[in-house]
Write a structure and sequence with these properties.
2,3-Dihydroxybiphenyl 1,2-Dioxygenase, domain 1; 4 helices; alpha/beta; 185 residues; 4-stranded mixed β-sheet
């Protein structure tokens, strides 16, 4: 099935493909109305289009980075080792007092100039989008870090069900990290 735009509108055109379905999105929502009757196997595409429209209408479109601060060089090296060598994040940039690691859709910033140890604050955890939760959990355990929620399947019962495989571990500073693999039903 192919749904095409009624009128050319180059500013808001995006293409999504799944099972030979090509959808051109317009701001006025005509395509969304047509998609309402598409079978449930294509609900995922519809959710992507809705999310994309919402992004275009909002100024904030994501988290740029999460920051952790280390209080000494030993702690800094341990944290860098964990995120680079255990988790596998590549270095985006590095400077005298810190480093930024690329999570794929945001950054993890690590500073080496913290004044004091922080207890758990208002942020309960942060989640890393990963391809294989189970293999990463094994790497975390092998490196000696705590996994306090073993890998498991969940399904967030939203308007369009949101299935995922998750696990939780603690990083070198006691930060709680969710390993999150979103997948389709």
């Amino acid at each position: 099935m192919v749904v095409k735009r009624q009128k050319p509108n180059a500013e808001f055109v995006r293409r999504y493909t799944k099972k030979n379905l090509v959808i051109s999105k317009e701001r006025d929502g005509d395509v969304l109305k047509k998609l309402a009757s598409v079978q449930s196997e294509n609900d995922y595409i519809l959710s992507l289009i809705r999310q994309d429209i919402q992004k275009e209408e909002k100024n904030v479109y994501g988290i740029h980075h999460v920051c952790v601060k280390c209080i000494n060089e030993q702690e800094y090296e341990e944290v860098k080792n964990f995120y680079i060598n255990v988790i596998g994040l590549p270095v985006k940039r590095e400077w005298v007092t810190g480093i930024m690691l690329d999570t794929g859709n945001g950054l993890l910033e690590i500073f080496n100039n913290g004044d004091e140890k922080f207890d758990k604050g208002v942020i309960q955890h942060f989640a890393l989008a990963v391809h294989d939760v189970d293999s990463l959990v094994e790497k975390v355990k092998e490196a000696g870090y705590e996994v306090f929620v073993e890998p498991k399947e969940i399904c967030i019962p939203s308007e369009i069900p949101f299935p995922a495989r998750i696990a939780f571990c603690k990083g070198p500073l006691g930060e709680e990290i969710e390993l999150f693999n979103e997948h389709s039903l």
